[in-house]
Amino acid sequence: HYIVILFVLNIPSIENVDRSDFKTCEQSGFCRRQRKYKPDRSSYEIDLNTIKIVKSGHLRCLLLDNTKSHIKFKLDIFTLEHNSLRVKINERNPIRQRYEVKHSLVGEPKLVDMNITHLDGNQIQGSFGKAARFLLYVKPFRLDLFTNDMFVISVNSKHLFNFEHYRKKPQSNKTTTDNDSEDGMWEETFKTHKDSKPYGPSSIGVDVNFINFENVYGIPEHADAFSLRSTHDGDPYRLYNVDIFEYDLQNPMALYGSVPYMLAHNEHATVGFFWMNAAEGWIDVNYNKNLFSTATKPITDNIGIPEVTTHWMFEAGIFDGFFFMGPTSRDIFKQYTTITGAAPLPPLWAIAYHQCRWNYIDEDDVRGVLNGFEQHQIPLDVIWLDIEHTNGKRYFTWDLTKFPNPEKLQNDIALYRRKLVTISDPHIKKDDAYHIYSEAKARGYFVKTKDGQDYEGSCWPGSSMWLDFFNPNISQWYSQRYLLENYKGSTENLFLWNDMNEPSVFNGPEITFPKDLVHHGGWEDREVHNLYGMLQHMSTFQGLVNRSHGHVRPFLLTRSFFAGSQRTAAVWTGDNSAQWSHLKVTVPMLLSLSVTGFGFIGADVGGFFSNPDPKLLVRWYQAAAYQPFYREHAHTDTTRREPWLFGNDNTRLIRQSIEERYTYLPYWYTLFYKQERQGIPPMLPLWANFPKDKNTFKAEDSFMIGTYR
């Protein structure tokens, strides 16, 4: 069973964000360097004398940089269950440890047998899984991948692999000839913000090329096309979690979350590549037709083979790449969620209709809205409170002049089997009289500057501090704040919303943390930045689990996310606008999230900014009724937009849309269960159901709810 949803909207984009607040590739030193790196031949080669099978499913060797640096790297290849391959490359003896992401994994990936079928002076051939093979070239280093004898992925065939090793800073009085002191390697300034870069350059670039493909998807989050556009004439797609105010459309700017995972699909196969790296990243995409030869399939004619060339560039970390060999979309969904986890089955009420606003101002306002839904016979399961419900933006508190009896309010809401969601952002107001701040400060729980001081920035409360969630003890302490005895005024009928967790820092560079901040373990923010929001919502999720002693499924919404966030939180697309173009872009944005593991997703109905006219609002309700997360939300400066405020005819149409959602709740619930068990998201691109129909490969004005087989 399945539902097909079709939208036809041809609307120009509207620009709002101040782009000058955010870097371009040319303003980012490592992106600039990696993009300029175009050697005629790769300098990296494998040392054949070091090749060994560590254990079944694990091959190891040394990779040499054959330039004057003569740096050695460890190269590990792992053959994994479900037709997958993992490749790790790291410095063999770095002068400083490089960060390796662990939080995205649900456990250590399970190895399967690797069958080495050929080894000579220039190549190693191996097979694994269901008809998957790899061909590792020695000089220069290159990796080709095949599924069902189809050549599908080639790594470093464009010679762009470039691993900036850690090095000592050159003396200022020494004449350098290796450009160590050039192009933002040791210091960088953006606007008024200086990045000290105490450890120097550490970026990695590599080309990953999809052979016989003409469409690639994924790498959210961007307000852009579902089938990724060529970046040949502009900036690469950027992955860097930042707070974008009323984002632009049809451009590759970074948004609130980052998932460095790309899929390719053609009529024969679906494959994927996931680089588990939490640093800032840029990805170029280009579409070509090339002549190829491999050791097993030489060039036989002059017909160009379609190829999508992608150039991945990250500022720090290691190369930790997962290659998913499909060959079907169903296989791909299983392969990726085996590694990063599937979204758990949410409570039934959580996939129903939610009503939100910044802000419902007091208890009487909340009760009035709930009464309105009763009077107009419109279904509702959840009502939300934004930041104004707190005592001066001090989270885990209530403004008792507006919400004098929050527990009674929640109990009254529960009489109608409804829930309450409150917001809890990661910034902590600097106020010695605020118990969260004073205890965290006394324990040394805040993120530190490069000089070891507590970092102070600005957000909604004014002067604020940020907890260091990379410390497990701090994450555990934070999760305990959600227990009923600590979150005064809360009940088991209250659930959570983590916003502003990129994190948003109003006076920070690019409205976020400086990159030379220091987290637990000595890691700079540049190495771990895109994990911060995920670590907050993981802690919140654990707090809700512990609150009920594991008996009640949590609900939690997050704005910032990374690969693996789907295990603990739903995601929405952030600060959209009441424009037809923003309604249109919800489909490609949500599809991009769906195919990269995020099934519980939605966009603010009606647009967060500005005031929708009745026609737009009604159409948005109709469209969003067939998207996984269904919530109306609006900015504090907008006019009220409860469903009954736009005349009887529009109220009737909105009621019908919400009633349709409730009619299909059993079907939605079944799809979410299927997602938990098989990794298949509820919202699917057409090609997932019609894999051989080329007309579906770029479709982003329609989608399917469920699979037909």
UniProtKB/TrEMBL annotation:
Superkingdom of this protein's organism: Eukaryota
Signal keyword on record: yes
Keywords attached to this entry: Endoplasmic reticulum, Glycoprotein, Glycosidase, Hydrolase, Signal
GO cellular component: endoplasmic reticulum
Location in or out of the cell: Endoplasmic reticulum
Chain segments annotated as coiled-coil in the UniProt record: none
All residue ranges annotated as the Glycoside hydrolase family 31 N-terminal domain in the record: 75-284
PROSITE patterns linked: GLYCOSYL_HYDROL_F31_1 (PS00129)
Protein name: Glucosidase II subunit alpha
Biological classification of the source: Eukaryota, Metazoa, Spiralia, Gnathifera, Rotifera
